[in-house]
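User: Can you predict the 3D structure for this chain?
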Amino acid sequence: MRLLAIALVCAALLTPAVLLLAREDTALGAAGGAPALADCRGCHGQESVGNQWAGWEVGRHARAFESLASEKAAQVAARAGVEGDPREAATCLGCHAPILEKREAGVSCEVCHGPGKGYAGVCGEDFARAIEKGLKLPSEKDCLTCHRKSMAHPDLDFHFTLDWPDIAHPRPVTDADARLFSLDGVYRSWEVFTEEDGLGANMVFGVNVRGDEVWFSTDGGVTRLKDGKFRTWTVKDGLPHDATTQVAFHEPSGEVWLSTLGGVACFDGTKWTPYTQESTGKDGLINNCAFGIGVLGDDVWIATFDGIGRYDRAAKKWYQYYLHNAPLDEVWTYGLECNPHFVNFAVWGGGLVQYFPDEDKWEAHHDPDGSFEMELIQNDGMISQMATATSYANGRSWATSYFGAAVFDGRDWQEWDMDTSGLRSNFIQGIRARRNEGYFCGNDGILCMDLARDRWVDYRKLDGPGGYGEITIKSRDGRKHRTFMTRTSIPFNFVWAADFQGEDIWVGTSHGVARGRYTPEEEVFKPDPTLVSEGGTTMYSAPRPVEGFSVDVLEPRYVQPYHNFTKPKSVPLDRPYADFVDPISRLDRSFENDTEVRIGFLGCLSGPAKSYSEEMLKGSMMAVEEINSAGGYHGKPVVLKIRDDEALMGKDANEMVKLIFTDRVLAVLGSMSSDTTHVALRLALKCEVPEITSISTDPTITQIVVPWIFRCLADDWSQSRALAKYVFGERKFTRVALLEHNNRYGRMGSAELKRVAKRMERPIRVAIKYPSNCTDDDIRGYLKIIRDHGADAIVNWGLYPQGARIVKMMKEMGLDIPFFGADGLVAQQFITDAGEAAEGVVVTYPYDYYRESPLTQDFNRRFEAKHGYPPDSFAAHGYDAMMIVWRGVKIGGLSRARIRDAMATTRDFHGVTGMISFDHRNNDMRGVDFAVVHKGQFLPLRMAGEFVRRGAHEK
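Assistant: Here is the predicted structure, written as structure tokens:
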């Protein structure tokens, strides 16, 4: 055990002022009637309360004054310039004997706990009242007043967390607490491995164990550790892509199956055989961007951005599962795990989905609350539809999300979030289950929920040098906890994956892997002052009197009737993101010597809605040209790397991978649609690349609080609320019909509009969903239904191709009622296609062309001079998005992480679209304006006047 320096030597050379204050404070307490030491011993010398007296009496605090007579004390005093006997020097006595009247007692009770006059009579009966009357509980700051290195004590070795157990003197531990805080099986020793040891890369997405082999899926290939030796395979060895995500094993054949961001591969022991969309054909691998892989029997299952794939090894046949042949609310499958009985899938937006091969049956488990950002009733199902990972053990299926975690035993659910448990963070991207334990891989360490002991064990790396770790053991509700420090730790707190090798655990992080050694022996239990109860008092102190019935005292809350009804709350929306990046991460070191600054552009440049992205590209290119004309980045030009995703999720994933790994861009502009942006942002998170969208308005893009995604325009929630206030409030319509494009853009905007309408007591009269390929006869039928329901206005939430056809059909049918829309209609092509029928249409207006700003008007002039027509919202926001990224480059340099950090500080940024500020979700906080179509152009409503509005005769 290291020697505790608390009473041996003075840890700091205190100023006379500090010494005077310390001595006056304690001296006044003594003079005012502080109890004698014998009085303290009367209570605190009893074994029933822990005999704190004995602990002090044999410790170095009690001999602090005596130690000043030693030869070492004389040497220290000489270095400090103290003349004469240290036992008479105020400089030394300030720490070694603060109370002069009791100098022989050294650092006595009053020094740390304050004068006992006020609280001595109540400290054993009412601990809270004793604190009110002056009892002090020393903190790290108090100890460091003396225990810090100085010129006099350069060799002082003191660390509060490590040294505190040597002097702590809490009350005896109860049997229940001894079980709760037992260190048996807690991983207290960690061994770290990085690229320098042979790992393919420090970014480790997956860890999978087979016997004496450990496989690591990294963004620099797949690495196997066997017999103490690392071996890495990359594209050069036959892999379809270097960014690998998960490994699975087919035991009968010995095959190793690998998922990557560019396809899957099979290893037969000698060579890799790759499988891609291109090599397997249109009915083969469903998507190249694979997030997970598993083997059940002879079937290989693959989780992709575009659905679920299956390969029958025996029949050599591929199968594909989409929305139409599996219970998938969305096709984004971000995790899977095969067990002997069934396959679990974590579906983003679709919850936990299970497939039972013996019965050829699918089951889907959803969040019953129906709103992913809210948790209304605990333990009622999946905590969120936004599932990120899943694992199975001992009859239980575990599932994680960015809003907490849940476990399902086939009948009942248990759920956890930060507000109701010991969960450190709701942001969880991985899970590995074993026996009765689930190990959550989060953005702030790895956390174990131990169902058998009904507790949490939390592992994380401490900031600063030295590689110290922190372990916290918590009760189920998190209100009782014990924290202590370890000499070693995991390499980084952003954890992606974990697996077990025997009783040891392997943990994959963004900065390497670590092996936690299992320690079965029970250490001597050392209570820690950080063990606290709800009231903030030391747990081992005398309990407060129980007044009446108390659920928390008599039995756990979670077994009480109706315990699971909770106050509605927005779970993660008001919390900043935890530690997640290192500015000098491996991904950044290869950019400084580049001769150009590459920025990615991802959008729909072909297809029916290409005009949105085309205008965005023109605005972005205009910004790039301005940047380069001014000299670029220290002479290096900015180059826009352009990729067309055709607004298809599967292609978006593949093109985003190419931008990141082939084009090696520093940041990405895009994508266009909500669907594709969701796909791109997950890759932005996984590969640590900042992305900013200037078109997609899906609220959930930023509400999931992924730190790498930004948005520089108002989202659908803001627009729908503004539309509701305008249509129902200002215009006072009461019988409104809703036409909803049956895509994610239409669904997300319409959902909030419906909710707001109900709250305003103006429920939607009739709501009709229409597909992208609806015919004129279909549209005519929709409008007949609306007319038959007596609607006095129509709100359309969709894109301009269908919107133009709808207003033309309204004119043809003579349906003369006001027509409102969201920003999906704000394209010049809408006016061109609709002709005169567009006149009077009112829309949310993200870009005010007539804004009285020199910056805006100069942009308009230059854009029109270049392209021959005025810019629209998509061109202007594309320009601003590029300029926000450029600001990040100027501040952060050629580093993805530092660019992201700089972008996150965007406040009051002067853009051509207005003043832009990001909140803690990286979402634009601006309000919503309106425009009306007047004489073939969008005119801000503030300039229009009643006479140009369709339906000025409104009832």
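The longest strand covers residues 204-210. The CA atoms of residues 407 and 650 lie 30 Å apart.
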